[in-house]
Design brief:
heterodimer; A: 435 residues; alpha/beta; 19 strands; B: Rossmann fold; four-stranded antiparallel sheet; globular
């Protein structure tokens, strides 16, 4: 049963919004086409989670944010994401729907690297964006939320790494939903050309408990032949924000896409992370951790689909559930016909900290090819009493022992995040959410 | 008398309803090394686990006292803080927690708040003890016991023993799975602990370890009880003649506890 709530944003609004940003015509047309489709398409149906009554329609679409001259002007909780001892050379800070701060290293610029907000990218690099925008990874007409995303996209970044360029320093983006009702509808597009490499890390943050809004973000990562993309994220929207998060990768021959996602939202969340291993010998390592608390409902999908021969996929999902929270963890390893010599591995584990919490781990292997290897491990359970006993036998209190075990359980993602400040901040979020 | 005293009186222990220990009596004083020997399945490891408070073992009768304090009323961490230590036969693997973070938490757990060990002193201390135990330096940064070989786990248990410096330590089959070189290294670490205050209970079913660590007293367990006690000469005789003479002397046919039907 779907509740029919029509959007306050119509064709006229979308046209005006697009014109206001001086968008290219193709983008305006894409938006209008998507808006029309959104009226007939259904909401997605995540396995075992009913989202038909979730808020995807009540929000503010275009909210300005104050531009800053210096990072010192940011409040402490946003500065926490930055490695202060380092010069911030590759950074975009988005405040509501305004770019508050943007910097990129001149040397990278000279090499042809583009790192800029999506609105600027559409103006300055229209053809390049058009080539990849909702073409290879995510499609407009997948369901109502992808269509709505395409129609109303109001933020995000474009990161383009030319052929053979290796970027050593991480590229960082911070998406701050400062206004309690602003809706971030971000599009993140990362294109790594042949034999290039880049590490990108992003943070989502809001502080809205009572006031409601929704977020609808789509990420597309394209790794061309021999490219390597390492993608890190910490999602930390507050309980007032209902979140749809779609992160998808397309990996061509000999390329690598690594994900390290800390899914720390406080509100109801659907988050899917899908990687298509198109090319031979392509590789993806998708690590995600999540915490559920209060009465929030969450649905997480990690999917690696193999098309290329000798492609290698590894999924790790770790979740901690407390209070009355519930979450579904779908881990899907899919090997298509023809993807011989591929390997699909996955591990899904859920740690239950209260008897009223609910956590389901659904490991799924779909294999349509004979000459492959695959494996999965899944478990749902409480903190292991024998592990607790071991730590306590060294004098460590039960509380501290549990704390060590939980931090350890979520360490795979923390460890992999490229920016020290982001690591530290995720550790703090984990600490705050679990205790 | 220096050090602490651990007294075990008429200890009866069950696991999942099956009685394993059927009245163990044993007293260990500071400065003394005791060996508990016996064939497999006679209750030796159960004794070690019950003293430390393993969640699966239930004490149904008897007492364990440390300097007169009732150990059985203490939580596992309180037992450790009171001065007990168990080097485990099968230490847990804990992913995501580095060996060094764990060790530091352990040491600080024995100290007052505000009196935590300084990072410099800790690292220096750990480095020198790892050297004694011939351990690879990068083991400090590996996750606790994760992917450690059998021998590495045992050395890691002894490293903890040496860092924590408890009053009374129980070593549960610390020699099993060790080759002769590793055994010597582990014995060296344990012998370094020897002083007037430190008491140690060494559980083993091989005499081998006792070639390197000389016990003051030797106890033999069968059928969930200590059936014979003596000096180091007892372990020597066991090495030469095995356990059959004790069984004959005491009229025991099956030395094990017996399995549930």
């Amino acid at each position: 049963m779907t509740v029919d709530v029509s959007l306050p944003y119509d064709k006229e609004y979308v046209t005006q919004f697009s014109n206001g940003l001086q968008e290219p015509e193709w983008m305006r047309n894409l938006r209008l086409d998507a808006l029309e489709k959104s009226e007939t398409l259904q909401l997605p149906k995540p396995d075992k989670t009913n989202i038909s009554k979730w808020n995807f329609t009540e929000f503010k679409h275009n909210v300005q944010g104050e531009v800053i001259d210096s990072l010192e002007d940011l409040p402490a909780e946003i500065q926490d994401f930055l490695d202060k001892e380092k010069e911030q050379q590759n950074l975009v800070i988005q405040r509501n729907h305004t770019v508050a701060y943007a910097a990129i290293d001149q040397e990278l610029k000279d090499q042809g690297v583009i790192f800029t907000d999506m609105a600027s990218a559409l103006r300055d690099h229209s053809d390049l964006v058009q080539k990849y925008y909702m073409n290879d990874a995510v499609h407009v007409d997948e369901h109502r939320l992808t269509a709505l995303h395409a129609a109303l996209m109001n933020g995000g970044v474009f990161l383009y790494v030319p052929k053979n360029v290796q970027i050593e320093e991480p590229i960082q983006a911070i998406f701050w939903q400062e206004d309690p009702k602003a809706s971030l509808i971000n599009h993140i597009l990362v294109v790594a050309e042949e034999n290039s490499s880049v590490t990108y890390v992003e943070n989502y943050i809001s502080h809205n408990k009572e006031e409601k809004t929704s977020a609808n973000n789509v990420t597309e990562v394209i790794a061309k032949d021999g490219a390597k993309v390492s993608f890190g994220a910490v999602d930390n929207f507050d309980s007032g924000t209902t979140v749809y998060m779609n992160r998808r990768g397309v990996a061509y021959r000999d390329s690598v896409i690594e994900w390290a996602l800390g899914q720390m939202n406080e509100g109801d969340t659907v988050s899917e992370n899908i990687t298509h291993l198109i090319g031979d010998n392509s590789h993806s390592n998708a690590k995600t951790v999540a915490i559920g608390r209060g009465s929030q409902k969450q649905n997480f999908t990690a999917n690696i689909t193999h098309f290329g021969q000798g492609s290698d996929g590894y999924i790790l999902q770790h979740g901690v559930m407390k209070d009355k929270a519930s979450a579904i963890f779908n881990g899907i390893g899919k090997i298509e016909h023809g993807a011989s010599k591929s390997n699909a591995e996955q591990e899904s584990r859920v740690l239950m900290l209260s008897k009223d919490a609910r956590g389901d781990a659904n490991p799924i292997l779909l294999i349509d090819e004979d000459d492959v290897t695959a494996g999965h491990a899944a478990s749902v359970g409480r903190v292991d009493p024998v592990q607790l006993y071991y730590l306590m036998s060294r004098g460590i209190s039960k509380f501290e022992a549990e704390r060590l075990i939980i931090h350890g359980f979520l360490a795979p993602v923390v460890k992999q995040l490229p920016v020290e400040a982001v690591k530290r901040q995720l550790t703090q979020v984990i600490e705050r959410k679990v205790y | 008398m220096a050090g602490s005293t651990l007294e075990i009186k008429d200890l009866h222990v069950e696991i999942e309803g099956l009685e394993i220990l059927k009245g163990v009596n044993l007293t260990i004083n500071g400065g003394e090394f005791h060996a508990v020997m016996g064939p497999n399945g006679t209750g030796k490891s159960t004794l070690a686990s019950a003293i430390m408070g393993h969640p699966k073992y239930e004490v149904t009768q008897g007492e364990i006292l440390l300097d007169g304090e009732n150990v059985l009323e203490m939580e596992v961490d309180e037992r450790a803080q009171a001065g007990l230590f168990l080097a485990m036969q099968y230490p847990s693997e804990i992913s995501g927690v580095t060996n060094s973070d764990f060790l530091r938490s352990s040491i600080n757990a024995q100290r007052e708040e505000g009196d935590e060990i300084s990072l410099m002193k800790f690292i220096k201390d750990m480095d020198s003890k790892m050297e004694t135990l011939d351990m690879d330096k990068n083991m400090a940064q590996r996750y606790l016991n994760e992917g450690f070989s059998g021998g590495e786990k045992k050395r890691n248990e002894i490293l903890q023993l040496m860092m924590i410096q408890p009053a009374i330590a129980i070593l549960d089959e610390i020699d099993s799975g060790l080759d002769i070189d590793a055994l010597k290294v582990v014995a060296k670490g344990i012998n370094e602990m020897r002083n007037d205050a430190f008491g140690c209970l060494i559980i083993t079913h091989y005499q081998r370890l006792l070639n390197y660590i000389t016990p003051d007293k030797v106890h033999v367990m069968m059928q969930g009880r200590v059936v014979k006690s003596g000096g180091p000469e007892l372990s020597q005789r066991l090495e030469e003649e095995g356990y059959d003479w004790i069984k004959q002397e005491l009229g025991i046919e099956d030395e094990t506890i017996g399995q549930k039907a």
